[in-house]
Every structure is written in C-alpha cells, then in structure tokens.
Amino acid sequence: MSAADGAVGMTWRLFTSELRLIYTRRRNLAGAVVLAAVPVIIAIAIKVDGGGGGSFLFGQIPVNGLFVALAALMVQMPFFLPTAVAVIAGDSVAGEANVGTLRYLLVVPVERTRLLVVKFAAMVVFAASATLLVAGVGSAVGVALFGTGPLPTLSGPALTFGEGVGRVLLVCAYLTLCLVAIGSIGLFISTLTEQPLGATIGLLVVVLTSQILDAIPQLSVIHEYLPTHWWLAFADLLRDPVSLDTVTPGVLSALAYTAIFTTAAWARLTTKDITS
Amino acid sequence: MVGATLVVPTIAAAEPDLPEVTAAELLANLRTEPVDGLSGTVVHRADLGLPALPGLTDGGGGGPVGSPVDATSLLDGEHTLRVWAAGPDRARVALHGGMSELAVVVDGDEVWVWRSEGATVTQVLLPEHPTTDDAGHRAKARGGLPPMTPAEYADVLLASLDPSTEVSVGAPVTVAGRPAYELVLDPRSDGTLVDQVRIAVDAADRVPTRVQVHAVGHSAPAIDVGFTDLSLTRPDDDVLTFTPPPGATTDVLDLTDGTDKPATGRDGEGSNDADDTDADDGEKADQVTVVGDGWSRVLIATLPPDALAGLAGQELTGEASELAAGLEALPRVDGPAGAGRLLQSRLFSVLLLDDGRVLIGAVDGDTLQAAAG
C-alpha cells in the first residue's frame, strides 16, 4: 500500500467516524426530531382547519401534499435549519479542541488541511440531510394526508407530480447550498475558539443580524451582500418556466461566502498553535 | 466568483449612430404589438412621491424578502417583470414577488389573470372583433390591470395624442443593448404635472423598448419602464397558454356580447376584488364627465352615495379594509368645491369629495378643486 492510498484511507476513515459521531449524538437526534416535527404540525393543522388561504405555499397544501415540505422548509429556513448547521459547524474544530482531542488527531498524524476538508465535507452532508429530512417528512406526511395531485406553480399552470418532486429536490439543493455558506462561516468561527458553544452562538448571531439588517429598508444598498438575503429566492424554482433572476445571484453569493470562509478557516487552522 | 459578479462591463454606452427619422415616420411605423415574438425582462421603476399608504404602497424593494405583489405594488419602487409575446394577440407578462406572482396571459380572445396569492384566476373572454380600441377598454380586457410593459404604456400614451402635444425625435439611445430612437412627447399646456414623456423605439424592430414619464420639477423620471434584456425570438407555445391549476378559484368576465356583465364560473371569495369594481366603472361611464382638454383635463366621476359610507360601515376584509385604511390616511382638504381627501403624487392627483365626486387628473390639487367648483 502506497503512502497516498494510506492517506486516502485514513481520510475516509476520519470522514466516516465524523459522520458516525454527528448522527449518533443524542443532542443531534433531538434536533432532528424538532426539524421533523414542524412539517407534521403544519400538515395536521391545515388538515384539521380544512382550508389554506393566505400565502401561496400554505394555501396550496390541500391541493398537493408536496407543499407541506415546501412550507416547512420556508418556515424553518430563518432559524431552525441554520441552528442545526450552527451546532455542527461550531462543534467541528472547537469541539475537538474543547475535549482535548484536536492535538491527538494532528499527532496521528492527520494533516490540518485534511482535517478541515473532512470537517467541511461532514458539514455539507449534514446540511443536505437536514434539508432532505424536512422535505422528506413533509412530503410523506403531506402525501398521506392530501394525496399526490399535480403541483400548481407560482406562475399558475400545474406540473405533474413527478416534475413536482424534481422541483422540491431542486429547492433542497439550493437551500443546502445556502446552509453550506452559513456553515462555512461557522467553520471559520470554530477555528477561532476552543468553546464549541461560543462558535455556535457566534454563527447564530451572524445569521440573525444578517436577517435583521435585511429587514431594514434604509440599508437596501447592502442587502444583496448579506448571507441570508437570497434564501427565499427558491421561489424562482417554483415558477413555470423556472426563473433564474434571483436564484443565480443566490448561488453566486453562497459560493462566494463558502470560498471566502473556508479559505479563512484554512488560513487560521494551518497557522495556529494547537495546545489542546 | 465574486469577481464574476462585480466586473460588469461598464463601458459608457456611446450614442448609437442611426439614420435620421421624423416623428411622423416613427409614429407610423411604431408597433405596440410585436409581430414575430419576443421575450425579455422589464424593469419597472416608479417614483411618484406617493404618501405611504397602508395597502397601497409596500415600500418597494421587490427582492426575495418582499411582500406579495399585486398591480398596485408597481406604484412604488422597482419591480421586475418577465415578458413573452408572439404575434399580435399572444403574450404573457409576469410580475415576480417574493413568494408570489401576478401573471397576465393573453391567448387569442381569452385573457387570463393569475394571482398566486389566494390562487385566483380571472378569465376574460374578449369579443372576436374588438370594436373599441381605447385604453380604458383594453385595460378592462386585461382584467382591470394598469399598463405594465413599455408597449402597454406607449399604447396608453399614444392613444391620447392630440394637438396639445408637441412630438419630436430626441437623440438616439441604447436600451437593453440595442440602438433605439426616442420619441419625445411634450405637453404644450403648462397646467399639467407631466413635463415630458420619452418613448424609446427599437431602431431595428420598431417596438417600444422604454417609456419614461418625467414630472415637472423632478429630474429623475417618475415612471421608468424599460427592457433590460430583450430577445426577439418567438417564445415556446407553453409559455403563452394558461391552464388554471387545480384548486384555483376561477372567475369569468365575459365581454363577448359587448356588455360588461361578469358571468361567474365557480364563485369564491376571490370574486369581490378589483375586477368587479372596474367593471362597474364601465357601466357608469355616463356619470363620468371631462373638464378641460389635452394633458390638463380632469375626469370627474360620481360614486354611488353609499360607496364610501359602505366602506366605513361594514366589517371589512382583505383589500377592502386596506383600501378604507388608505383613504383614512389621506390628508383632508377644504376648498371652494367642498371638503374631501386629496391624494397628491408627482404625476397625478385624486380628489375624493365628501359629496361622492371623484376627480382625477395629471394636474395639481388646486386645479382639481377649480374643476369641481
């Protein structure tokens, strides 16, 4: 076995053990229950109440169960989903430092860059699984309660159920990318501290501040640069034909934030003194 | 990645070199309906200086976090419209809001108006051979919606061309990357709030690509509607047809027999909206009088005595309550013609007198008072 194979194997083992840790921690499972509960509550509330009305996503739930998934994603995007990602991202480096395992990992030896790549990859997988969990539970409950009709688009004409599922998956992909951008900021904050809780709260402060600034009309000049500004652009994926007017800047913004903050995290981690 | 978004070529658009045309030639060749087809993006900017009214102005923005859109959203701020058209009688205009959309689909002698908020559809059946071509009738045919695209604005503005307007051709401009002539309409009277109207006409295809309405005393246009992106290819047929989605509330407005009686398909709560009031306006057309002429003319309509009182008395929902709140927020004025409420913007004024008369004109409030007296 060559040295390269060994390195790849070790990275893979580190990655799988990281995922195992994330998905077996009791606090993460409790978080998953909260994420999954929201679409169930929405679906049951609409079913009992009978009518939708009001906003498009909620109003269409009785027409097509997939809207439970979309409504749940929209409701959870401002706080619950970023919180889940903040816990994982904040814990990534600071968590190891906090319990004193970071230096042992680096002694193993795992290169610092490789460690960061593994932490980032695990965060991406987690963000995708959190979005898919909400969408999956939402779709399942929605379809069970409201059936599988055609999916009305924001533009009016309906899509077939299959196309509708495709659109929901597109929305999940877009929101995952948005969460990865936030997670990258968290990864960077996590390299600054040895307190995982501090990193998590720090990221949540960033997310909430961004949303508050986004709501102040006088600051409209900076709005498009805020990391949370384009989150609801997933509406464009529900139009017919799909519009890219706001999805494109949303994707570019998320990629830019990801690139900047993973680089910053790398610069920080590869140069800092690891003492714990 | 950031670079890609920031390094937008900002070459100063040099004045395009175009052969000279006269205003008459430009007007004669102007096509407000594209023949072959087009698709593009229109940016609609309005800076009317309207007071902040609940339910009327939403503060603009129109970004992903914006509130739901309706045609009244266009009165303030910047909005993006997607436009598709093929032939003279097939088109779609979509106004995108945060998590909503307002779409107008013209498909032959059918017009569909879709509002995603509440999922309501209004189907308008047009007469086979439209006899009237006045702007009001066309607006009604589009479900009571005001003009939204450059072509629709040009349509309305050119319909009222008369000797009170001086028409000239301005310097060539570039709109959506395409050279264009600019038709300049100058009101001869100085009683109007309209300073100048500039209509950019595509040099190659002779379709209106931008309309700017300037108000007296303001350098920035009060209304600026123009293509930012324009492709003169025929769009897909799918885009130009409309099938109401399941679960939508559909109203039918039948104009085929020449009367405006709304025949209601599946009646729902959505039926009590702006379309009905608009149809009423048509039926009571004999109660509308015009004072003055040209750009400074004033329309005077008399509302049924209980129209406004009714708004105040009953328990209101949705649009009606917002409208009532909006009226309450207007400043009260007292003039020679009586007391009432005045809505004053940069381009037009509306005076609601307590005796039920409503005066509208592209003039200031004092002129409205004088017209009423």
From TrEMBL, chain A:
Pfam families: ABC2_membrane_4. Keywords: Membrane, Transmembrane, Transmembrane helix. The chain crosses the membrane at residues 29-46, 66-94, 115-148, 168-189, 201-226, 246-267. PANTHER family: INTEGRAL MEMBRANE PROTEIN-RELATED, MEMBRANE PROTEIN. This is ABC transporter permease. It comes from Cellulomonas bogoriensis 69B4 = DSM 16987.
